[in-house]
Known about the structure:
The structure holds two protein chains of two kinds. Chain A has four helices and no strands. By secondary structure, chain A is an all-alpha fold. The longest helix of chain A is centred in the C-terminal third of the chain and has 29 residues, at 59-87. Chain A is elongated. Chain B is built from six helices and no strands.
Amino acid sequence: MSPVSFEYGLLLAAALFVLGLVGILVRRNLVFMLLCTEIMLNAAGFAFIVAGARWAQSDGQVMFIFLLAMAGAEVAVGLALILLMFSRGKALEVDSLASGGES
Amino acid sequence: MNTAFVIAGLVAIASTALVIVQRNAVHALLYLIVSLFALAVTMLFLGAAFVGALEIIVYAGAIMVLFIFVVMMIGAASSTLRPRAWIGPSVLGLVLLGEVLYVLTQRPGGLSLLNIVAIKPQEVGMALLGPYVVGTEIAAFLLLAGLVGAYHLARRPSDGGPRPAEEGRR
């Protein structure tokens, strides 16, 4: 019974990562793209947890805590950039930003 | 017990799929919070209770609130908070809650699956400040850099001197 749940855990992590990747490719809004980055980071961290549980070691959880700190710093800077872009009166769509940023 | 794990995983996948198809950012954030809760429940089943709690506290509690602040600042329509928007996340959350209560009543000893050794928070703390102490310091530096960077980017130009990021301001 136990090996099956590890396989399911890794499958869950892969599915969440693919969902985040699809989201970042499909959505054109900067807020949604940052959200999908969070989904992908979370899926990678979950894979660490599954591996740590498989070998009954605490290293996976330590890596997840590092990922948590990284996600916090990344979200702070990313949201500050989004606010800066918004306060300059630009649209938050990457297509309009790619063409010189003049919306 | 495996069924409980699979149900929590399916809730996580369903709510994440609903995140990326939402038109409205506030609704997407609601579903993402449910997804984080589902992932925290699967971590509880995997014997990683400490990290599951951290996932709820830091991700759902701090990072998602930061997102909600910014989405509200850049203008969310007042119609986004209609009660109908809460139905989907509430149903998924109730599924998770019922599952956790069921497993708790079936196994009073703990939430982890049968063959899994639960890793205590003490072990994580000893590893974090033992062999991984350099990584902990680097994470602290990274957080400080994120703090300073976010402050610099979000500062109003009237606070002081000219800011390099504002050279091209119209």
